[in-house]
């Protein structure tokens, strides 16, 4: 199973006030990926950067905070794919590339 992680926080970042929340973005991505890839198992999971985390998730959350990244930050296979308002075309390209190399 592939996993798409959406890092963010309950509050929106200052430049993202007019965009959906990180949690809403995770739900939107889940629905979009299910429509695009009905035969693939792709889990989309929201990760709150201010919650108690460990390992890789803690490292990515710290990166989002310390580097003032615009969230949501979308991560696939430990690679930041999108920062701020995600573009489906970019996510599809990464997922297609990973599918071809699997």
Automatic annotation (TrEMBL):
<dbReference type="InterPro" id="IPR038218">
    <property type="entry name" value="YuzD-like_sp"/>
</dbReference>
<dbReference type="InterPro" id="IPR036249">
    <property type="entry name" value="Thioredoxin-like_sf"/>
</dbReference>
<dbReference type="InterPro" id="IPR009190">
    <property type="entry name" value="DUF1462"/>
</dbReference>
<protein>
    <submittedName>
        <fullName>DUF1462 family protein</fullName>
    </submittedName>
</protein>
<dbReference type="Pfam" id="PF07315">
    <property type="entry name" value="DUF1462"/>
</dbReference>
């Amino acid at each position: 199973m592939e996993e798409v992680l959406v890092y963010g926080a309950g509050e929106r970042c200052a430049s993202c006030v007019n965009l959906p929340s990180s949690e809403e973005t995770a739900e939107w991505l889940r629905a979009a990926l299910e429509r695009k890839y009905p035969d693939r198992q792709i889990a989309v999971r929201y990760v709150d950067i201010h919650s108690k985390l460990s390992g890789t998730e803690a490292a990515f959350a710290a990166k989002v905070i310390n580097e003032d990244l615009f969230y949501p930050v979308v991560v696939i296979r430990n690679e930041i794919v999108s920062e701020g308002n995600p573009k489906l075309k970019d996510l599809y390209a990464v997922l297609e590339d990973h599918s071809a190399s699997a």
